Amino acid sequence: MNNPLYDNLFGVHSDNDNPFLYLLDGKTITYRQFLATSGRIANTLVEIGLEPGDCVAIQIEKSPEMLNIYAACAQAGLVFLPLNPSYTVDELKYFIENSEARLIICDEKNKEDLKIINQKLGVLFETLNGNSTGSIIDKANSAPENFETVARSEKDLAALLYTSGTTGKSKGAMLTQANLLSNGSTLMSEWQFSQKDVLLHALPLFHTHGLFVATNVILSAGGSLIFLPKFDLDDIIKKLPKSSTMMGVPTFYTRLLRDKRFNKELVKHMRLFVSGSAPLLSETHIQFEKITGHRILERYGMTETNMNTSNPYKGERRAGTVGLPLPGVELKITDPKTGNALSRNEIGQIEVRGPNVFAGYWKLPEKTKAELRENGFFITGDLGKIDEDGYIHIVGREKDLIISGGYNIYPKELEIFIDDQDGVLESAVIGIPHPDFGETPIAVIVSENDTALDIDKIKENFTIHVARYKHPSQYTIVKELPRNSMGKVQKNLLRSRYS
Ligand code: MCA
Ligand code: AMP
Questions:
Q1: How far is CA 80 from CA 7, 73, 166, in A?
Q2: Which long-range contacts (CB under 8 A, 24 or more apart) does 176-180 make?
Q3: From the CA of 83, how far away is ligand 1's center (Å)?
């Protein structure tokens, strides 16, 4: 094999006439058809001047073509960088500049804004719209299907995924072919995926969960995806009887449980429900079993590591735990101060090592050194313990992070933005419980010299500059922020006050 990622996930299907994607409009795309389009796009990418190792940034609504671009990047040895369509121009500028992407593919409607960035940075530029039109499609339509796969090794970069940083700036996690392949095949066998599986896919494609966990598992097994543009309850209810498996963030499951149509009969064909990206409440796990007879399988991962642990497919799926380390993954709990391993049931930081662990942060050697030890263990920033049966419990986070509906929000990024607003002296952003999204950010603000703050103006500025999902759902003005003797803001006090 000369390009392990392409050969194993895509190339193996070149003569496969089975369905890969079932679309909402009733259309089916077989593996063979999918690969033909990907080949045309790979030819186009080379034609417009991309070379192996170049990075392709893509910011479009979820579509089959987005997966074609992923396959084409793998085949042409390019690095795939998917971006959330809700990012604003300011946010995009940072990603494009920082990643040194050679090409950005975006929706026609954002063309003018992005052209300005591109002209400044000298990046190539193509469009791709949700309705399968765009400049890249026009070019691909006249390109040949056959593309000679570019040789790559398992150590080569396959993707760059940005994960937010505690300093307020996102960091690019460098994922190698080996990272993606090892996790794809491990999950396929652990969760017993086969060609017969039909996975209900309602997750976005710009994160590890929807892209590498759900899609790579199906590609590894040769199964099919019911490919939904987003999570819509009516569509999910309609498609569940035609599916065998589903993966989702906890919000998917709490929304389903609130719907009267969701019952045992509807999911009688299902063999597996997987949850991850955020904590699944034990109550959700228990209520789900009561209503459907299924125990949700919860697993734990990160952008930097893909999946680390999973509850067993066969064996006890224990509510409130993320299961056991996956085969090939070593996990230990260490003392954050000394780095020494702790005993069973002691709480400490979670560290992981294995073929799934990334190659480091893009252009951040110091940050990489601080979080990825020389012995290969990655310090996740999550706090947990291992119980007497080996099950891992995540009990909190050492990193300051809010997870809203499966999207990560880094308070520091928002605090920097708020502190920059007229009349603001300082701020603290904290996560409080939210019935739908699990957590939601709220802003606690101190004004300069007790001046009256224009919150509407701050909200307006958020709308212009910051992706919608990060917007605080509440603003509270206080006289001062509580601090400890070291001068550090006591967010735990704020959390208990406002939760
Ligand atoms: C949408 N909105 C949100 C979120 N999603 N606000 C906060 N948090 C969110 N997650 C905004 C919308 O822009 C909208 O704003 C308003 O909230 C209500 O939208 P609604 O229609 O209810 O939302 P939705 O479109 O149904 O989306 C909710 C969702 C979605 C289905 C939960 O956010 C989602 O698909 N989340 C999954 C994220 C994910 O895949 N995470 C994995 C990353 P307005 O009303 O102003 O228009 S983590 C990962 O990959 C690691 C490795 C792992 O372990 O898996
Ligand atoms: P991301 O940066 O998007 O990759 O998010 C990774 C983070 O999501 C982890 O470090 C955890 O804090 C959290 N996470 C993922 N899966 C779970 C889970 N099953 N339970 C609790 N937290 C989770």
A1: 16, 6, 24
A2: 176/358, 176/359, 177/3, 177/4, 177/5, 177/152, 177/153, 178/4, 178/154, 178/355, 179/306, 179/355, 179/356, 179/357, 179/358, 179/359, 180/5, 180/9, 180/212, 180/216, 180/306
A3: 14
Whether pTM exceeds 0.90: yes
Map residue 34 onto helix, strand or coil: helix
Contact 305, 319 (CB under 8 A): no
The preferred substitution site among 310, 324, 356, 382 for testing ligand 2, maximizing ligand atoms within 8 Å of CB, is: 382
Smallest CA-to-CA distance from 80 within 88, 69, 89, 91 is with 69
Residues of the chain under the 70 pLDDT cut: 1, 166
CA–CA separation, 191 and 207 (whole Å): 20
- The 10 Å Cβ neighbour count of residue 327 is 11
Q: How confident is the model at residue 451, as a pLDDT?
A: 85
> Any residues with Cβ below 6 Å from ligand 1, and which?
203-204, 207-210, 230-231, 249, 251, 276-277, 301-303, 404-407, 437, 468-469
Radius of gyration of the chain (CA): 23
Residues 6+ positions from 396 with CB-CB distance below 8 Å: 382, 383
Confidence at residue 69, expressed as pLDDT on a 0 to 100 scale? 98
Token pair of 415 as six digits: 């605090």
Q: How far apart are the first and last CA of the chain?
A: 54
Domains belonging to the chain, first-starting first, are 4-152 (3.40.50.12780), 401-498 (3.30.300.30)
| Token code pair at residue 433 | 């419980």
Taking the CA atoms of residue 240, residue 241, residue 246 and residue 251 in that order, the dihedral angle to the nearest 10 degrees is 30
Q: What pLDDT shows up at residue 120?
A: 76
